[in-house]
Amino acid sequence: MTKYDQLATDIIARVGGRENILGLTHCVTRLRFKLKDERLADTDALKAMAGVVTVMQSAGQYQVVIGNHVPDVYAEVVRVGGIETGTGGDAPKKMKFGDRVIDLISGIMMPALAVMCAGGMIKGLAVILMITGALTDKSGAYILLNAIGDATFYFFPVVIGFNAAKKFNMTPFLGLIIGAALLHPTVNGVDLNFWGMNFNASYSSTILPVILMVALAAPLERWLKRVIPDVIKTFVVPMLTLLVIVPLGFMLIGPAANLVSLVLTQGIEALMSFSPILAGLVLGATWQLLVMFGVHMMLIVMAMIPLAAGQPTALLTPIMWVSFAQTAVVIAIWLKSRDKKLKGIALPAWISGIFGVTEPAIYGVTLPRMKMFVLSCIGGGLAGALSSGLGLVTYRMGGMGIFAIPGMLSTENASRDLMFAGLCLATAMIPTFIAAYVMYQDDPVTNAIEDAALPGGSRLERDTVLTSPMTGQLVPLRDVQDGAFAGGALGEGIAIDPTDGRVVAPADATVMTVFPTKHAIGLITDTGAEVLLHLGMDTVQLGGEHFDVAVEAGQHVQAGDLLATLDLAAIRAAGYAMVTPMVVTNTGDYLDVIAELTNDATITAGAPLLTLIANTQDAMEVSAHAVSE
């Protein structure tokens, strides 16, 4: 569950449920719903909800005002409700096919990251307790701990089926059942006879087979909902969807994966005979991809045959180093990144990676950053080539990650094998770590915002003066024709009805955000004030037309620097008021926000406009002294 999961669920329920939502976009502070029937929405309940500032009904939209974190809430509402995103403020980015595939996989995996990390760390804990002698592999405590850790990964298709169904806008529990059907013990990894043909596929710990099946099921379910009568569709639609998709998956996807796996295994064996070093390079570099596509099981089976007979195998050893290369990349990112959210994901990911569980690292950290994922593949390939070149083989199945090394030690030359394993481990981790640390860069916006924050909270201990961003008539915030601004729900400030289309920076600051429709700019001043400039009323509807923004997110500006140029005449001719609120969204961090109102209520861009009184004891005494005089 994410931070805003419950809030998103409650908002959907209060606007009349998923079936009452025709469309959803967001602007810089509010969710903008298009509802079938606004009378079904419980406006009073929404206004009373923690996390909702207020509700407004304007411009044919049902607007739920959230505040600065509206993009995060919007993402959760879309995810929880399975809502197809609209246009306007959240127009989807155009992506290449490969980027779309990665975005799809990452989007499906991200909600499961926490449990993946937990499963990996529990598996590592169980192995440590066994290695240290605290538990035996036959003890009930060890068996239970191992089962808890294994469950996350063995039953992964169930989790992925649920998440994929949400991503494909399908009934989530239908995706869950598809994943569960693939893992049923009577059909998973056993021979099934359909019309005289045998099918056998194993789906445990895989992800792409169930994603493909859900991708096929989603349009089928939507079509069935259109053609099946309402009186029976509740149970007939899921029944028919399962009857078509699950057998189709077993007969097509499973055998296709097995065929690819068999061809790859035969190719690797032939390559091993021709050149063990080249085979180790290929196997180590591609192993993560083989696992992702679920075509690795045949190779595992082929390697298990000699091990079961007490014979060593060279097939497994090259892949043992891949997790260390992946872990090295994540450690580098964890050390270098200043993104607190990313560091929070990376820490448990590299800890579980040490024990060979790399799913959290792949899907949460490196795959969304493709260069980092490629680096891990290169590191795995180099270590795989070295291990094959040194003649390292696997004598017995050990654990995963660091605990796989004992399985490579022979009784005759254990010290030599341990030295070779150490060389392979170093090859997988050291150059990969160095390359990742040098190449990795945080998102520039994240860095710029971190740079804007002074240490120890001192940035908020100074009074701040904000100058006017525009030339025009001053309008008290309470007189703005927008309840969210007029009521001060988004922060204290003032508004300007401009006579000139130039918008300039009100202080030395970093641009936090430029909204895609260009009608709003968020800044954080060098003293820590968070300032929102909302250029006009409901101008989000213009989609950026008549707005020319001169800055981008992450850019540092000086007071008076040009932020944007507006065609005031064209915007007003289109029917929009250009009253522009400037509000301090972290007003609560200050003792007071004082507006400089002149007698004629006009102001020139660059003139002092708002004074933010720091919330310190000294500031309180100064303020009290000023009042007494």
Detailed description of the structure:
Helix 5 (113-131) packs antiparallel against helix 15. Among the domains are: 5-92, Gyrase A, domain 2 (2-Layer Sandwich), CATH 3.30.1360.60; 456-628, Distorted Sandwich (Glucose Permease (Domain IIA)). With 629 residues, it is an alpha+beta fold. The longest helix is centred in the middle third of the chain and has 45 residues, at 230-274. Helix content is 49%, strand content 15%. It has 21 helices and 20 strands. It has an 8-stranded antiparallel β-sheet, with helices on one face. Strands 1-2-4-3 form a 4-stranded antiparallel β-sheet. Strands 7-20-18 form a 3-stranded antiparallel β-sheet, covered by helices on one side. The two termini are 54 Å apart.
Mean pLDDT over the residues: 81
Query: What's the CATH H-level superfamily name of the domain at 456-628?
Result: Glucose Permease (Domain IIA)
Q: Could you give the count of β-strands?
A: 20
Shape: globular
Largest sheet: 8 strands, antiparallel
Give the structure's gist in a few sentences.
The protein is of the alpha+beta class and about 625 residues long. About 50% of the residues lie in helices and about 15% in strands.
